[in-house]
Design a protein that fits this description.
- It is a single chain.
- This protein has 400 residues and is α/β, with parallel strands linked by helices.
- It folds into two domains: 5-22 and 153-372, Enolase-like C-terminal domain (TIM Barrel), CATH 3.20.20.120; 33-148 and 385-399, Enolase-like, N-terminal domain (Enolase-like, domain 1, 2-Layer Sandwich), CATH 3.30.390.
- The chain is 34% helix and 20% strand.
- The protein is globular and about 60 Å long.
- The structure holds 2-succinylbenzoate and magnesium ion.
- Magnesium ion binds at residues 220, 222, 245-246, 270, 292, 321.
- 2-succinylbenzoate binds at residues 87, 167, 220, 222, 270, 321-324, 347, 349.
């Protein structure tokens, strides 16, 4: 299914010419689309169980779904912000406002454009990467659907299915955590990630290691520590973890580099990697030796591919992170995770890990520990209009 060698052309690139002295690899750009309008919806989708991280607990996924209207059909995207600015500075109402007030008008003003031009049109507006990513995905989906072309092939996927890891929230106590992890292992998940926070780190990790032996295991702190906690974090070294994800705060690149020098466990950045430039800087500083790539956090799937390319050339392993995506973002993440540099299992779990009911007609399922990369045009999944309607709590259409 793959278009080998297909790569996203960089917009502003530092190292690309050096890495490809014979010239940039060529790839087939997506078709241009004419943008007549965008529909935004806020959805509230109940979670199968509350999800707790170091920054909070959610029982309902609040998310924004985007529909791009074009004369050749619609395209769908997802803005992965959460209801409050706890994981990142972005949040639902901020995303909604910046989308309708600035970003969508700029795209409608451009009117006809290729998906590869979306980031450039939106570049004057600082930040708001998750919002930009959701809009870009809707345009990309519309363009690829009009061409009958799957997103995976367009991005450069080389696999038809991806190994599926699961992110397990903080539970009431270590024994409840062991129960939860045991359930996911029984389902076939090939890698376990547990959330940690101060006071719920060493004992929780020890309990999982003792219960399940040498399973592929990693931990995610979501920025809950400081360098003063280095001794506690070094206690995790004895559990032979794949990595520790984002122990310190988003801006703490220098502190992450210092911490990495004190730990045997590889440090992996999530929150800190907001762009190709941030990834380049973090690697140069020695702040990270593995990268979690999330398209929303970095401003879109095209920037995500550029970070993948950078890491692949630098020999840095990457994996695909998740943001409790609906079937829209989950399909796109499966496509992204099928690129060759994604050498570690990602947080690309089955839809039913989070949701009883999804908003697509064929939600991602776990088969032998893997999730299939959709092969239909664009995202390769169809929206279930009844489910979409059921979960919609706010809706607005912005037209030219
Ligand atoms: O840090 O990876 C994270 C969910 C929301 C916000 C941040 C994170 C997460 C997860 C869940 O860990 C990943 C998933 O969607 O499976
Ligand atoms: Mg994380």
């Amino acid at each position: 299914m793959a278009t080998l060698g297909a790569r996203i052309p960089a917009t502003t690139d530092h190292s690309r010419a050096r890495r490809y002295p014979g010239g940039m690899p060529t790839r087939e750009p997506a078709a241009s689309v004419t943008l007549d309008g965008f529909e935004l919806r806020v959805l509230h989708i109940p979670l199968v169980s509350p999800f707790t991280t170091s920054f909070g607990t959610e029982a309902v996924r609040e998310v924004i779904v985007v529909r791009a209207h074009t004369p050749d059909g619609d395209g769908w995207g997802e803005i992965v912000t959460q209801s409050a600015p706890l994981y990142s500075s972005e949040y639902t109402q901020g995303a909604w406002d910046v989308a309708r007030r600035y970003l969508i008008p700029a795209l409608l003003d451009a009117h006809t454009l290729a998906p590869e031009q979306v980031a450039g049109v939106l570049a004057p507006f600082v930040g708001h990467r998750m919002t930009k990513a959701g809009l870009e995905l809707a345009v990309l989906d519309a363009a690829l659907r009009s061409q009958g072309r799957p997103l995976g092939g367009y991005l450069g996927a080389v696999r038809d299915r991806v190994p599926s890891g699961v992110s397990v929230g903080i539970q009431a106590d270590p024994s409840a955590l062991v129960d939860a992890v045991g359930g996911y292992l029984d389902e076939g998940y090939v890698r376990i990630k547990i959330k940690i926070k101060p006071g719920r780190d060493v004992a929780d990790t020890a309990a999982v290691r003792e219960a399940f032996g040498t399973i592929p295991l990693q931990v995610d702190a979501n920025s809950a520590y400081t360098l003063a906690d280095a001794d506690t974090l070094a206690e995790l070294d004895r559990f032979d973890l794949l990595l520790i994800e984002q122990p310190l705060q988003e801006d703490d690149l220098v502190d992450h580099a210092a911490l990495a020098g004190m730990l045997c466990t590889p440090v992996c950045l999530d929150e800190s990697i907001t762009s190709l430039k941030a990834a380049t800087d973090a690697l140069a500083l020695g702040a990270t030796s593995v990268i979690n790539i999330k398209a929303g956090r970095v401003g879109g799937y095209l920037e995500a591919v550029r970070i993948h390319d950078l890491c692949r050339d630098a020999g840095i392993p990457v994996w695909c992170g998740g943001m409790l995506e609906t079937g829209i973002g989950r399909a796109a993440n499966a496509a992204l995770a099928a690129l060759p540099g994604f050498t570690l299992p990602g947080d690309v779990s089955a839809s039913d890990r989070f949701y009883h009911r999804d908003i697509v007609t064929e939600p991602a399922v776990l088969e032998d520990g893997h999730v299939r990369v959709p092969t239909g045009p664009g995202l390769g999944v169809e929206i279930d209009p009844l489910a979409l309607e059921e979960f919609t709590v706010a809706r607005e259409t912005v037209r030219r």
